[in-house]
Specification:
The protein is mainly α. It contains 20 helices and no strands.
Length: about 450
């Protein structure tokens, strides 16, 4: 079962739901939005005044409102230890605030159930997009079940974080709308990825690719929606939203200046795997001796920026071989999703769940002969490599250097780029099953 044993203190400490989302839900219910992103760390004397978390009997309750003592201690300890860590804008805290009405046990089960439904809907949308253009692959029918074998997805579901609902779901909805030529709606859904800034990258790149092909509505709707969401957050809780913006930037920069504060390595086996470093800039910095790390953050960002520039140039070149939207969108989206761990500072192992739509997109479509084998093989081997590294972290963390994972991801990013270019050169790559018919959305 996805349900987590909340009576285990160790499991609670590793659960994103108890460390971040549930405290945020109670803070939002009390309209204490600024405390969601508390930056300053209180004195140790303040921490000492906080009592321990509620007893196991409080957590054993499966019905009724949450224990008042448990909630106050949970929220108080989270704020006092600077561990609220709510990663989303203040408006998103309102969405989860109804969880404050439930007991911790029921709240976790409810959130996991919603995440499971959202993920199932993502699989449905991606397969439906392939069916709408008469290019559905037989592999797509079982891709959703195989996706559950991907460690980052399992961790997202079990730890109860918000990546599936707040990042993968809007990104997938944007992909579906783009594939069905509803570009304005696509831009709106891509903008909702503001909740997870790393997830904005594939949305922006896909909108840019459509803009190159003289389809500006997606980019226009994306920019307008981002502006409206920003204004709405300012209107709703200006101080909290400003703090979220500064905290997001500050956390990213501090992770480069002081990667040890974010890096979970051999001596910290009790820390959750979801927080393990999985991005190129931090992996480069943390590999260096401690006396050299302080000044290498800017250089690491330059390396990531160079990779991004080269990748964008390659994607622009690829657009010359593409003509139709059902060719442009999937190939561009897949490439951009593979790019996230290479250029986004602060990305963790849990964020690799954002690569799931890439595998689902590739599996859902019927590609031409040579590109089909290259694309699907690359995706499968990538999943195996990431799962293998997860096992290394779990059972031999002292050997799990982040740079090993990043080196593997660089290799498969290069292979996916080659496969995408091959697919683009093969008359768009996508092979429509009914060659004499038009895709449904063109009728």
């Amino acid at each position: 079962m996805l349900f987590t044993d909340v009576q285990s203190t160790n499991i609670r400490n590793q659960s994103d739901f108890f460390r971040r989302l549930l405290p945020a839900a109670h803070l939002a219910a009390k309209h204490q939005y600024t405390d969601l992103y508390r930056i300053e760390r209180p004195d140790k004397s303040d921490l000492a005044t906080k009592s321990d978390l509620a007893s196991e009997s409080d957590l054993a309750s499966n019905s009724g409102p949450a224990s008042e003592d448990f909630v106050s201690n949970l929220v108080g300890n989270a704020i006092a230890s600077n561990q609220t860590g709510f990663a989303f804008p203040p408006l998103w805290s309102v969405i989860i605030s109804p969880l404050a009405l439930l007991s911790p046990t029921i709240a976790l089960a409810t959130w996991q159930g919603l995440s499971l439904l959202a993920f199932s809907y993502c699989v449905f949308l991606i397969n439906k997009a392939a069916s709408r253009i008469d290019a559905a692959s037989g592999d797509g029918e079982h891709s959703g079940w195989f996706a559950f074998l991907f460690f980052p997805v399992l961790m997202s579901l079990c730890s109860g974080n918000g990546d599936i609902i707040f990042a993968i779901l809007p990104l997938t909805a944007g992909y579906y709308c783009a594939m069905t030529k509803k570009f304005a709606r696509s831009g709106l859904f891509f903008a909702l990825c503001l909740a997870k800034p790393a997830c904005l990258l594939p949305g922006l790149i896909t909108a840019f690719a459509l803009l190159i092909h003289k389809r500006p509505r997606c980019m226009g709707a994306l920019i307008l929606s981002l502006l409206l969401l920003t204004l709405a957050n300012f209107w709703f809780a200006a101080n909290a939203f400003t703090t979220w913006c500064s905290t997001t930037i500050l956390t990213t920069w501090q992770s480069l200046l002081n990667p040890g504060s974010h890096f979970l390595f051999a001596t910290e086996n009790s820390k959750p795997l979801t927080d393990f470093i999985a991005n190129l800039p931090e992996a480069l910095v943390v590999t260096l001796p401690l006396n050299l790390q302080a000044g290498m953050g800017s250089l690491a960002l330059c390396v990531a920026g160079t990779i991004l520039a080269v990748a964008l140039h390659q994607m622009v070149q690829m657009q010359k071989s593409l003509k139709d939207d059902y060719q442009i969108v999937p190939l561009t989206m897949v490439t951009a999703l593979y790019l996230i761990p290479l250029v986004v500072p602060g990305a963790t192992f849990g964020d690799l769940s954002l690569m799931v739509p890439a595998g689902l997109i590739i599996a859902s479509l019927e590609w031409r002969k040579f590109s089909d084998w290259r694309l699907k093989t690359t995706v499968r081997v990538t999943i195996i490599a990431i799962n293998s590294f997860a096992l290394l972290v779990l059972f031999a963390r002292q050997y799990a250097y982040p740079l090993i994972l990043i080196a593997v991801l660089i290799v498969y990013f290069r292979r996916i780029v080659e496969a995408v270019h091959l697919a683009a050169s093969e008359h768009g790559g996508v092979m429509q099953v009914f060659a004499d018919s038009q895709p449904e959305f063109l009728d």
